[in-house]
Write a structure and sequence with these properties.
The complex is a heterotetramer of chains A (about 110), B (about 90), C (about 110) and D (about 100). Chain A has about 110 residues and is mostly helical. Chain A has one domain: Helix Hairpins (Orthogonal Bundle), CATH 1.10.287.3510. Chain A contains four helices and no strands. Chain A is elongated. Chain A starts with a helix and ends with a helix. Chain C is mainly α and about 110 residues long. Chain C contains five helices and no strands. Chain D has about 100 residues and is mainly alpha-helical. Chain D has one domain. In chain D, helix 1 packs antiparallel against helix 2. The radius of gyration of chain D is 17 Å and the shape is elongated. The interface between A and C is large, with 57 and 52 residues.
Chain lengths: ~110, ~90, ~110, ~100
């Protein structure tokens, strides 16, 4: 019982933090990371509803199947979003990395 | 006596939590990636301990997948991110 | 016995997850965020194991930790190479032929 | 049976101690090469201790073989990637730390 509550609250907080970051920040890679964290929070809540403790019977397999499908779909959506943001940055003249000055970011990331 | 295995897994989880500090203030990028690899090894150990602590032998297979795939991120990092502009000073066959 | 040592494990795992995701979403360096996301995937696999869902844990360890991290690292590399004005090997020649524009001229200042 | 179980418990404790020392080395050492040194050796020895402790406690030959296979896979992967990291650091001209 306490396990379900702990992980449900954790999933809720993860969803809230991801939504906040998705609204506030402007870097596309960070937006994709925020969407991934949000989806992880939803999966955590779904699995936490299906949990039963160790000696008290089996867990519910239907949310497991849904979460399994959701993980695969989220990975493919992440790949599509990454390649789309790369193409947007290469075809448009503007630089999307607006969070810091561009030269610093390019220097830091391969330091 | 299975609580002892879970207790050891707890200590290893504390170890992971201490390693996050090195990711947060690592001076170079390789320090951060190295710590991610430490997390892979620690995760394998936690899974092995939990397979006894939770009486579930399926976790050994998950530990096998962990050990195989935690290196993939490091390899990609070396080949794609950490290498400079493709011009090498030495001619090692990489 | 409702409260066992596994409950302590749960609390510590949840706190580590929250701390990790908070740092992930609020750091300035984007590469640090990607490495923290890889570690986050590993800890999520541990969480699925703890929730008695080993099938989901197997999928998360294969996809979340093994595939998403390299995808992010490759995308980061591609963005940085474009920002520094380097040429990409696969499609720059076609683009030059198409519109006669060198991507080196469009690099950010 | 009980003697084997207690030997396994002692090995598990040694493995956890190795992991702790590896993390302390990762946090405290001054240089990327020394951090790599601490992390690789201490953690692989710790994982080996945990694997052999669990193999002593399991009492089944199939589980023992699978545990040792996991350890061998971790050894190969970890040594390969650590070698790559150190060689790339040398190629990027990162100087080793000296007591100056």
């Amino acid at each position: 019982m306490i396990t379900t509550q702990i992980y449900s609250i954790t999933g809720l907080l993860l969803f809230g933090m991801g939504l906040f970051t998705l609204i506030v920040h402007s870097h596309p890679l960070r937006k994709i990371l925020a969407v991934n964290v949000m989806s992880t929070g939803v999966f955590l809540i779904l699995i936490a509803t299906a949990y039963t403790p160790l000696g008290q019977g089996e867990v519910d397999p239907v949310p497991h199947a849904m979460v399994l499908t959701g993980i695969v779909v989220s990975v493919s959506v992440t790949a599509l979003a990454l390649i789309l943001s790369c193409r947007v940055q290469e075809t448009s003249n503007r630089d999307l990395l607006r969070e810091k000055p561009v030269a610093e970011t390019a220097k830091e990331c391969t330091r | 006596m299975n609580w002892l295995h879970t207790f050891f897994a707890l200590i290893l989880l504390l170890t992971i939590g201490a390693g996050v500090i090195r990711i947060l203030k690592g001076p170079t990028a390789a320090d951060r990636m190295m710590t991610a690899q430490l997390f892979g090894t620690c995760g394998v150990a936690i899974l092995l301990l939990l397979s006894t602590g939770m009486n579930n032998l399926v976790l050994l297979d998950i530990a096998l997948v962990f050990a195989l795939l935690a290196t993939l991120a490091t390899l990609t990092f070396i080949r794609r991110t950490w290498q400079g502009s493709g011009k090498r000073k030495h001619d090692y066959p990489l | 016995m409702i409260y066992s040592i596994l409950t302590l494990f749960d609390i510590l795992l949840a706190l580590t997850l929250l701390w990790l995701s908070w740092n992930l979403l609020n750091t300035e360096d984007i590469f640090k965020a990607v490495v923290l996301f890889i570690s986050f995937g590993l800890l999520m696999a541990l969480t699925w194991v703890r929730m008695r869902a080993p099938d989901v844990a197997l999928a998360e360890a294969a996809l979340g930790a093994g595939l998403t991290g390299p995808l992010f690292l490759s995308a980061l590399r591609r963005m940085n190479r474009f920002l520094k004005g380097e040429r990409r090997l696969d499609c720059d020649e076609n683009r030059e032929k198409d519109n006669g524009k060198n991507p080196k001229q469009t690099q950010a200042t | 049976m009980t003697i084997l179980y207690n030997c396994g418990t002692v090995l598990l404790m040694a493995g956890v101690l190795f992991f702790l020392s590896g993390t302390v080395g990762l946090l405290r050492f001054p240089d990327i090469y020394s951090r790599l040194h601490a992390l690789t050796k201490a953690d692989n020895v710790g994982l080996g201790c945990i694997v052999f402790g669990l193999a002593l406690q399991s009492g089944s030959i199939a589980v023992t073989i699978k545990l040792i296979l996991i350890w061998l896979l971790v050894l190969i992967a970890s040594s390969a990637s650590c070698h790559l990291i150190a060689r790339s650091a040398m190629q990027k001209n990162i100087q080793p730390w000296t007591r100056s």
